[in-house]
Structures are given as structure tokens and as C-alpha cells.
Design brief:
Length: about 290
């Protein structure tokens, strides 16, 4: 995974098969620059994030979120090449100077477009922009994609049919640290799972007692420190104890770590790791 680089959907304004997506069609997403040039402004900015832009697995989550927003007729845009890393990894690694440089560049871009509301699929971006940018003058309403999807359902913009492909299937949810313990959001992802008529099974450590996947605090970008066991292996073991068919996540980092954990236990054939957005998109055949 690359850090500190601008990132955007491949091509002018969409994802194509060149991104190793399964569909050859292009999802056309306008950039803020294109909207501004036509005198328009979006209702919400979709902050894609580094993982959602560069990691092949996370791109599928990005595409699922975009499809849901399109289905709900949300007027949204992306920054495209103008979006840069939020600076979260730099800050967690102790490089405050680099964090502030990256943050100030992003704030300048966001304020230049007069952005008010941001939705993102990454809890790290969600936490950094929402809680740490205000200290540098960047004030925005920031929502995680599970919260936003729940809002769309509540106000009638998105309707879930229920009783579909996930009806009765056992799903356990791994709480991302920066969504749950960091920002107190536990219910939105669980409510969405229940709306799929799935059987939600909880791990012994969940919600405020949840265990990190092992990638937080910039650990995603460094080798593991000396210890008796990898954190993601222990967390995956807890997930597998619930005998799930699907381990659901709400973070691209968690998705990677839990997927690696499932591979460690050689359970890829019977246990899937999926983001909440992917569950919704698949259930609605988007």
C-alpha cells in the first residue's frame, strides 16, 4: 500500500476493469473540480481514502459504497487527484510535523470547495478528519459509511428488500477501533446486518470491549513486534469461535487483517470476510 500520494478512481471519473474489478462497466463519479466547473456542488463528498484507492481488495468496498450512493440518488463527488492521505499513519507513528503538513493541504482543498459533509469508508479517515482536523481549522460533518447508509434508510432514500441472499446466515461483526471505542458507534453496522435478516452473532469481546485487528496505530505499515502471537490471529480465532459464515467489517484495514487471519486458519473455503457496504450491495444486487 502506498502512502502520502494523491489517489482517485482510475480513469477520468470512474472505476474500470483495469482496476481488476469484476464488471467491465464504468461507474462515473464526478470530481469536485468537474462539479465546480459546471457551477454545481454535491450534497456530500465521498472521501475514498488510501486503501480504498490503491488496495485491490479495498477497491471493491469503494465500489460497493458508490453503488449504494447512486441507488439512493445521493448527489456526491470525489476529490480525485486532489485527495491526499489524511496523515493518520504519520500521526500515529509520531511524526506530528508530517501529519500537520498533510492535514493542512487537505483542509485547504476542502475549504476551497466549501465542503460541509463528508462520508468515508475508512474509520481512520473518519476519526482524523472529524476529530483532529478541527484543531487545525478544518471543520466538517464527517460520517462513516455505515452511519450514512443507516441515515439513507431512515429517511426513505434507500430501501432494503430483506429476506435475500443473507437471510438466516450467521454473521459476526468486528468493531473497528476508530468507529467503536474511538467514536462510540456500535449500532449502525449491527442494525444494517439485522436488516438483511441475517443472524448476528457476537464475539466474546465486542463493542466497548472489542479487540483491535492489529493494524491500528500505524501498525499496518510495519513489521509486527516481538510477542507470543499475532493480534489478528487471536482476533480471528475469537470470530471463528462464533461459527460464522461471514465476518463483517467496517474498515479496509480490519478487512485485510481478518482476511489474513482466516487464511492462517485455512478457513477461506467456508468463511468470508466482507465489508458492511458489500453485504448491502450484494443483497440489493447492485
Amino acid at each position: 500500500m502506498r502512502r502520502g500520494h494523491s489517489h482517485r478512481p482510475t480513469g477520468r471519473n470512474g472505476w474500470t476493469k483495469k482496476n481488476k474489478m469484476s464488471e467491465p462497466s464504468v461507474i462515473k463519479i464526478p470530481t469536485m473540480a468537474e462539479m465546480a466547473a459546471s457551477g454545481e456542488s454535491p450534497d456530500v463528498l465521498f472521501w475514498v481514502g488510501c486503501s480504498g484507492s490503491f488496495d485491490d481488495r479495498a477497491k471493491r468496498i469503494t465500489k460497493a459504497i458508490a453503488k449504494i450512493l447512486i441507488r439512493a440518488n445521493v448527489k456526491f463527488a470525489v476529490l480525485g487527484a486532489e485527495e491526499s492521505c489524511t496523515g493518520d499513519p504519520a500521526k500515529r507513528a509520531g511524526n506530528e510535523f508530517l501529519f500537520q503538513m498533510q492535514a493542512m493541504m487537505n483542509i485547504q482543498v476542502l475549504d476551497g470547495y466549501e465542503i460541509k459533509k463528508i462520508v468515508t469508508g475508512c474509520p481512520h479517515c473518519f476519526n482524523t478528519i472529524g476529530n483532529e482536523y478541527p484543531g487545525l481549522g478544518g471543520n466538517y460533518e464527517v460520517v462513516h459509511h455505515t452511519q450514512f447508509i443507516q441515515q439513507l434508510i431512515n429517511n426513505g432514500q434507500l430501501k432494503l428488500s430483506g429476506g435475500g441472499v443473507f437471510k438466516g446466515r450467521k454473521i459476526t461483526f468486528h468493531d473497528p477501533c476508530y468507529l467503536g471505542r474511538g467514536n462510540g458507534e456500535y449500532e449502525a453496522p449491527r442494525t444494517l446486518i439485522e436488516k438483511l435478516d441475517a443472524e448476528l452473532v457476537e464475539m466474546k469481546r465486542c463493542k466497548s470491549r472489542g479487540l483491535c485487528c492489529g493494524a491500528g496505530g500505524a501498525q499496518m505499515f510495519k513489521e509486527a513486534e516481538r510477542g507470543d502471537r499475532e493480534v489478528n490471529v487471536e482476533r480471528t480465532e475469537e470470530a471463528l469461535e462464533t461459527t460464522p459464515e461471514i465476518i463483517a467489517t467496517g474498515c479496509p484495514f480490519c478487512n485485510t487483517m481478518m482476511t489474513d487471519g482466516v487464511k492462517h486458519f485455512e478457513r477461506e473455503s467456508d468463511v468470508q470476510v466482507m465489508d458492511i457496504a458489500e453485504l448491502i450491495a450484494q443483497a440489493e444486487d447492485l
